[in-house]
Structures
1.
Amino acid sequence: MANEPIIFMKDDNDVNFYPLVHIEGIQGWPDNLSDLDIDSLKEELSGVNSEMVGIQSQINTIQSAIANMPTVSDTGWQNITFLNNAIAYDTTSTPKARLFSVNGVYFLSLKGAFKGLTSNNVEIGRIPTSMTFAIKENKSFAQNMSVSNSLAQFTRMRLDTNGTIKIERATVDTITNTMWFPIDITIML
């Protein structure tokens, strides 16, 4: 059957009204209401009800899955402030920090490389202050550095609770301002 547009009747004030109509004048209705199969309608309604219970169960499952999804936050990469004459090793390795959390567990990622240092036991940079709240204790870590005397060299670094990154010691005795000090690590805080 084609869909026919509904045409409203209007009174003299252009207000819709609904005329009284005999049931025999309604298209699609049985001529006699006693011809309606009430049991069949009840059965259909029961089937619809069962489908609704199934749909509600699916909705509950989806809501539960959403409620149990991990919460994630991420600051994105932000520049580290240089300290004590430290500078970026080159334009492609500007030191950066990124703080992210998964279900309240914080991780700090560091990347990039420094140069410009002339001694051990020196602060080389500071992460953005917006990230320091998550650092509850000092964290030490080791990193490789420039090769010296044909040997791989390493540094022991530390991230302090105030957000400073410090080179504590290196495997070379003499540090020059052209040496490469990379940071490439993710620390669980």
2.
Amino acid sequence: MSTDTDTGADTEAMTAAVVAVSSNGVYSFTKPNQESITLLAGLGVEGDIHAGVTVKHRSRVAKDPTVPNLRQVHLIHTELFEEVAGAGFEVRPGDLGENVTTRGIDLLGLPVGTRLHLGPEAVVEVTGLRNPCAQIDVFRHGLLKQVLGRDEDGRIVRKAGIMSVVLTGGEIRPGDTIRVELPAGPHRRLGRV
């Protein structure tokens, strides 16, 4: 990821954009696309089942419902859809349960604490990687192997997007620009949340 040495701004962010926005008020693996979504500071996507101060994903609620919700907004890059299409899988925005589908930004390469400015007002802070689950194979058999694997050193590689919390609320629409604000160093690699 390159940065503008005068401003510290990420030059990739100049072309980064929101492709689609999705939400669902009920538990479902996929989320229908919307014309817009509204982010609420400290909560997530207005009306989405996963919005809240504490965890909302069922498996996490079962373990401890008082844990802070670090998965308020889920983002996935469309480049992943293009990658898995090469292996014969058709995946569209919202299909993997993400709230924001992006283009032109290396989401998986961002460090913990990166702030993403989505559209004119909303700001989210990246908390970590989505941990792909077996529901992905229920959606498309064999897709889990495409989004969860190992690198040459045997480390687990998670490709199913990133999670974030909402710092500043606001409306987001397809076509909105994304600006990246990296945290002060040293940077920490994303882990699963």
